[in-house]
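Support request, please re-run this one:
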Amino acid sequence: MTDLDSSLAASVAEGRPLRSLYAGNARSVMQRGWRATKSTNWMVVLSGFFEPIFYLLSMGLGLGALIGTITTASGEKVAYAAFIAPALLAVAAMNGAIYDSTWNVFFKMQFAKLYEGMLSTSLGPLDVALGEISLALLRGALYATGFMVVMQVLGLNLSWWALLALPAVMLIAFGFASIGMAVTSYMKTFQQMDWINFVMLPMFLFSATFYPLSVYPQGIQYVIQALPLWHGVELVRGLTTGIVGPGMLWHVLYYVVMILIGLVFTTRRLRALFLD
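Re-run finished. Output below.
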């Protein structure tokens, strides 16, 4: 390459700084991951579908027969099963997205060295980030769709607003997948990865999943309201029970911010690890 060619190439790169980050081909990353999942991990994916259903049957129908109705934050009385079902729907989306964007990504990054090969092609770090997050989003959507069908069969969707629960669940999965991949990009060992489960378990138990927020002391309520799953639970619960108001837009905004933060950190991290 002559000096003129080099200077022209540099000029083009300077004029299109985003080209090194995004080649517009994230779908190839997602398709590759989906084919690999279907051929090797489909039993693992399938098992994750039944976990929230078991919780619903044991807690919602079993314990719910003893509890009866429960009062929501807005003062409405709903059956206990209808109270926890939307929470478990949000949990299903979170679990599907988190598992795919953490352990799956960790293996590809630390052992398979897959991203190094991808980024040696025309793909940019944002392509890889969006592709992997889209794969996690697909898994979360599959879990949520199946669970919504179960809710409909059991008569737990109490309002036509429940039709918007699926887009809401997609937003929740997108937010957790983005943050999950960003966090995983900093992980080096299996011991560090265990911290993800350490965080997810209490979030699952204390995000007003099984009990109203009002049962907790005021100070604990503030902590719970800062958790991302609580926002997802409140968003989906409002839609499935028909308790809809302008305050739900704050939950949506929370996840939009999560998505943006996750994408920015993941893209920068992948670039720092494999391109700089």
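The longest strand covers residues 69-71. The first helix runs from residue 3 to 15.
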